[in-house]
Design goal:
By secondary structure, this protein is α/β, with parallel strands linked by helices. The protein has one domain: Aldolase class I (TIM Barrel, Alpha-Beta Barrel), CATH 3.20.20.70. It is built from twelve helices and ten strands. Strands 1, 2, 3, 4, 5, 6, 7, 8, 9 and 10 form a ten-stranded parallel beta sheet that branches. Strand 6, helix 8 and strand 7 form a beta-alpha-beta unit. The structure holds S-adenosylmethionine, 6-(5-methyl-2-OXO-imidazolidin-4-yl)-hexanoic acid (DTB) and iron/sulfur cluster (SF4). S-adenosylmethionine (SAM) binds next to loops. Iron/sulfur cluster binds next to loops. One of its GO terms (molecular function) is biotin synthase activity. One of its GO terms (biological process) is biotin biosynthetic process. Homodimer. Belongs to the radical SAM superfamily. Biotin synthase family.
Length: 351
Amino acid sequence: MSATAASVTRHDWRLAEVKALFEQPFNDLIFQAQGVHRQHFDANRVQVSTLLSIKTGACPEDCKYCPQSGHYNTGLDKEKLMEVQKVLEAAAEAKAIGSTRFCMGAAWKHPSAKDMPYVLKMVEGVKALGLETCMTLGKLDQEQTQALAAAGLDYYNHNLDTSPEFYGNIITTRTYADRLETLSYVRESGMKICSGGILGMGESLNDRAGLLIQLANLPEHPESVPINMLVKVKGTPLADEQDVDPFDFIRMLAVARIMMPKSHVRLSAGREQMNEQMQALAFLAGANSIFYGEKLLTTGNPQADKDMLLFKRLGIQPEAREEHDDEVHQAAIEQALVEQRDSKLFYDATA
Ligand code: SAM
Ligand code: DTB
Ligand code: SF4
C-alpha cells in the first residue's frame, strides 16, 4: 500500500489483515504509518501529559504487571487519597513545565461514594488552572461517569491492556466485559476515551493485533491510545518477563497509527528503558503523545529537561492545548528550558 493512499476511519478490522500490517518489511510499515500520520496531524507536534498518583498501592485487583496491586509485595509505600490542595499544587507544577494535560490515577477497583466528592473537586480545580483533565480510577458506573463529565473531566483512561484471549493470564479480578462496559459509559457521558495496553507481558503477535482490533472496532476510536512497554517491577509476577524487541514495539505504534488514524497514539510507560533513537523511531511511526515529567504513577520517567532537549534536537514542538494560545504555551516551555539550563545538572549536548 502507498503511504499517501487516503486513510479512512474503519471499525471492521480482521485479524489476518492486521497481522499482514505487522508482518510487512519494517521500512514499508513505517513509511505507510508516517503517510497516514501526515494526513491527520502535524508530524512535528507531540502532545504532553503529566501523571500523578492520587491514591497509591493496596489495590484489590490482581493485575500481574502492577506494582500497586495488594496481591504482590513490591515494597511500595501505600498512600491514601491525596488532599485536593496538594493535587492542585502538583498540577500547577506540571503546567509550569509545559504540560497541557494532567492525568490523575488511583489504585482502586472503582471509586467509592465517599471518595467521589474529592475526586470531582480535583477535576474542577485542575480544569480551572487551564489544563486538560484526565483520570483513571478503575471501573465506573453510569452515575459516576455523568458526575465526572459534569465536573469537567475531559478524558477517562481505562486500558483494555491486551487481547480478550490473553487477558485471563494477566488479570482475574475484573473481566474484559467490565472494561468494555466502563468504556461505553464514558462514551455515553460525552467524555473522551483514553484506552490502550501493554507490551512485554508474554503475549503473542495475535494478542497484540487482537488488542488493536478491540480498540479500533469500538463504535468510535478512543481519542487517545497509550501503548505501554511493561515496566518490570520486582515482586510482581511479570518481573522476569523477556524484553520486547524494540522494533516490535515500534511496529505496534505504527499499526495503531494506521488503524486509528485520527487518534493520538501515546508512547507511554517504558521510555526510561528506551534510548533516544528508539523514541525518534516511535515518533516517525506515528506516536504523537508522551507522559512528561519525572514520574509515571509509581515508577520513573525521563527528566523533563531531557525530553525537551530531545524535542529540540528532533525539531518537535509540544502540542498546545485545544483553545490555548500557542505562543503563551511556547513561552512557558522556553522559560522552563532556560531554568533547567541554568541548573548544574543540565548538559547541553547540542552546544
Ligand atoms: N487502577 C486503575 C485501573 O487499572 O483501571 C487505574 C490505574 S492503572 C495503574 C492504569 C494503567 O497503567 C493500567 O491499565 C496499565 O495498562 C498501566 N500499567 C500499570 N502498571 C504498569 C507497568 N508496570 N508497566 C506498564 N504499564 C503499567
Ligand atoms: C497508561 O496507559 N499508562 C499510565 C497511565 N495510563 C495511567 C500508567 C503507567 C504506569 C506505569 C507503572 C507505574 O508507574 O506505576
Ligand atoms: Fe489496581 Fe489499576 Fe494496578 Fe490493576 S492496574 S492492580 S486496577 S492500580
